[in-house]
Amino acid sequence: MNSTTDSKKKQLDLHLPKHFTLILVIAIILLIVSIVSSLMLGARVVSYQELMDGLFYTNQDSYGANVVRKRISRTVFSLCCGVALGIAGVLMQAVTRNPLADPSILGVNTGATLFVVIGITLFNITTAGEYIWLALIGASITAVFVFGIGSMGRGGATPIKLLLAGAATSAALSSLVTAIIIPSAYAQDQFRFWQVGSVGSGNWDSIKIFLPFLIVGLLIAFISAPALNALALGDDVATSLGVRPGILRAFAIIAGVVLCGAATALAGPIGFIGLLATHAMRFVIGPDLRFLIPMSALAGAIILTFSDVVGRLIASPGELEVGILTAFIGAPILIILAKKSKVRSL
Amino acid sequence: MGNTHSFRADKLFSGYDNKTIIQGIDLEIPKNKISVIIGANGCGKSTLLKTIAKLIKPSEGDVTLDGKAINKYPPKQLARILGVLPQSPVVPEGITVADLVGRGRFPHQSLFSGWSKKDYEAVEEAMDFMNITEFANLDIDELSGGQRQRVWIAMALAQQTDILLLDEPTTFLDITYQVEILDLLTSLNEKYGTTIVMVLHDINLSARYADYIFALHKGELVAEGKPSDIITSDLVKSIFDLNCVVIQDPISDTPLVIPKGRYHVKS
């Protein structure tokens, strides 16, 4: 009797990744630490008292309290961007079945960039509310284009065809971006700051613009997680389990495009967050997407927020844009991953 | 136990990229039996299996389950009746045995239902049946080829379908594991009455384990029936272009094909 209860219990545990509770607790602690340090640290380091004043006592009007208040919106914005990029990364990896995929791999980032650049040069667009639509249109057209090319020929949109189409499209679009901004000094100025990627420009308005896109993307990601788990076993197994791979891929890519396009429009292209967050989490909790998607969102928020804080500290009293920092941390890690990872589906 | 699904193909043509491989096949899969599709390389046996599995769309003709074309079923509903184990499924990095087997429950779960007691029981039963419960928490990479194939079959079992299609489930396995897998599939068929259709390379194992054989040659069905009724030296000559002698298998009394080459023939 005892042994059957034991084995029952063991079986029930099987569907929660090993040490999941512990990892979740650690992640939440890290999240809190990242939030608190983002509020306290920077060119002006505030005290605990000033932090409390800034957060909870609106009548306190000290300089430190005001600094904290300014940093609240920046922190929330960076959390949102981290969540969006973390999930966009998991989705792209699930869809291409390639552990090295990132929104930039499918050319989605570059497509968004191109349209923003066109908006800046040709239509003198300068506000976030307008950027976001241009970026989304650019990201979507690129995704449709890449998906279209990748689906041609035998076997539909296979991972390798998607990656090749994405890489080629990305290269072509980057050269277009350069071609458009080179003749215009004004566009170069506008573009320069946006292009490195920064959450410093984040304010409540940009968060308000961001939120609907974030929610739509999150919903699609969570709903499609079990089907994406089936897709991970190959298109044939997924089909035999009752998934329509084409439709599922389209939905997951739309969610990825919306999340990454919106984040790119508001913060500029911030690379590698999706890759870093997903890999860190896959390493500790395994490949089950029902857990990997929310945990990568959490990891994305933590990594981006910490990177932003580090950027403020090392370049103090100025600051280093977070896009530069994530590229510096991300690029070597990408190389390490590429070297050791057996990219099995290829 | 048993199931009463009628599963058949009518005037089936199919292939890849306008190249028609299956040239007008009519067949009815025998209920609660093990059927094996045999034929030479490139004769279209895998293509036929994939077409009746809905993995390839036929260019002409229909595959019907209980009188309704399989592509007219909602995909998840079909997946609760018809399970497929394709030839080279993808193993996600770092996946555990239990996680993989559990993914076979997808067609039984709805968006908000999550994991029910029935799901856990089905997974436990499938792992138990395939003797892999002891590996439940291991990474698939730690297993041998034979163990790995048992995990994949367990995933298909967890799907709890009345019909199970397998594309060369014994390829790349040592003879010991080939026999082990075929024995397990036979006990599955005996215990649950699951209708099994598979593609096998080895004609002698096919003759021993199949209740019914479909013999293919150049995309056409040239013979079908019980192994002892249809496997003759003439049939082997016509589908494999091989001279042979057919004797009785001393173990199972089924036909045993002894090939005859140019050398080592006693005079």
From TrEMBL, chain A:
This is Iron complex transport system permease protein. One of its GO terms (biological process) is siderophore-iron import into cell. Belongs to the binding-protein-dependent transport system permease family. FecCD subfamily. InterPro entries: ABC_BtuC-like (IPR037294), ABC_transptr_permease_BtuC (IPR000522). It is found in: Cell membrane. It comes from Psychrobacillus psychrotolerans. It is a multi-pass membrane protein. One of its GO terms (molecular function) is transmembrane transporter activity. The chain crosses the membrane at residues 20-42, 76-94, 106-125, 132-150, 162-186, 207-227, 247-277, 289-314, 320-338. Keywords: Cell membrane, Membrane, Transmembrane, Transmembrane helix, Transport. It comes from the Bacteria. One of its GO terms (cellular component) is plasma membrane.
UniProtKB/TrEMBL annotation, chain B:
The keyword ATP-binding applies. Residues 7-243 form the ABC transporter domain. Keywords: ATP-binding, Cell membrane, Ion transport, Iron, Iron transport, Membrane, Nucleotide-binding, Transport. One of its GO terms (cellular component) is plasma membrane. CDD domains: ABC_Iron-Siderophores_B12_Hemin. GO terms for biological process: iron ion transport. The keyword Transport applies. GO terms for molecular function: ATP binding; ATP hydrolysis activity. It is found in: Cell membrane. It is a peripheral membrane protein. It comes from the Bacteria. This is Iron complex transport system ATP-binding protein. It comes from Psychrobacillus psychrotolerans.
